[in-house]
Design brief:
The protein is α/β, with parallel strands linked by helices and about 220 residues long. Helix content is about 35%, strand content about 20%. About 25% of the residues are buried. Bound molecules: adenine.
């Protein structure tokens, strides 16, 4: 899976992707991350990428030309069509199902906005999906882009060495995950539930499912 990240802050992307499972996935070439600095594509002699909004108002708006050219270059490098995903609080809310749906592409181009936003015309012209990671506003699209990359990349076969662990988690069966325990058996007077020590796999599965259902009912009844 190949991710091309159009951003004004490529170092942010590099830093997040240099650790843990993401670093390993990149080393194994199962996942490739290509940050591209939008500023490098500005035709302006001062490498400007933003300007005042028509109609007035606070902040600056990223203009069309560098974004359009950066996307064209990403497509040239990919060698075929690939969707452009714009991270914005105005988008559809990202879900586990969407992470699965994006796996069908071998390359995705992610556009990270900044300032007050992006000129609407370049969105109309080239953006295929507008995605939000939740109902709150961040300073830019870099962290949301990393959220998408992480959620999609961990579904790529081979990225998680314990393949079963991608399936047993929260949302994969429409429920929140059951509680997990490890050693010691007693910690601060709190005991691991007896059933987990029984070695009876069917009973353990049954208990976990009932815990998942109870937890979902209590915390996220909207999922049921
Ligand atoms: N950019 C700023 N806030 C965002 C959000 N909540 N989701 C996606 N992109 C964003």
């Amino acid at each position: 899976m190949n991710f091309y990240i159009l951003t004004l802050f490529p170092d942010m992307v590099v830093a997040v992707m240099a650790e843990s499972i993401m670093a390993r996935a990149r080393e194994s070439k199962l996942v490739n991350i290509y940050p591209m600095n939008i500023r490098d594509f500005s035709a302006d002699k001062h490498k400007k990428v933003d300007d005042y909004p028509y109609g007035g108002g606070a902040g600056m708006v990223m203009f069309c030309q560098p974004i359009f050219d950066a996307y064209q270059e990403a497509l040239r490098r990919i060698g075929h069509e690939a969707p452009l995903v714009y991270l914005t609080p105005q988008g559809h809310t990202f879900t586990q199902q969407m992470a699965h749906d994006f796996l069908k592409y071998d390359a995705l181009v992610l556009l990270c906005g900044h300032y007050e936003g992006v000129d609407e015309r370049v969105i109309e012209e080239i953006v295929d999906f507008q995605i939000s990671i939740g109902d709150y506003v961040l300073t830019g699209g870099e962290l949301p882009a990393m959220v998408l990359v992480d959620a999609i990349a961990r579904l790529v076969p081979g990225v998680l060495h314990n393949e079963a662990s991608a399936g047993a988690e929260s949302f994969e069966n429409g429920l929140l995950e059951y509680p997990q325990y490890t050693r010691p058996r007693v910690w601060h007077g709190r005991e691991v539930p007896e059933i987990l020590l029984s070695g009876h796999h069917a009973k353990v599965d049954e208990w976990r499912l009932s815990q998942s259902k109870a937890r979902t009912e209590r915390i996220r009844p909207d999922l049921l």
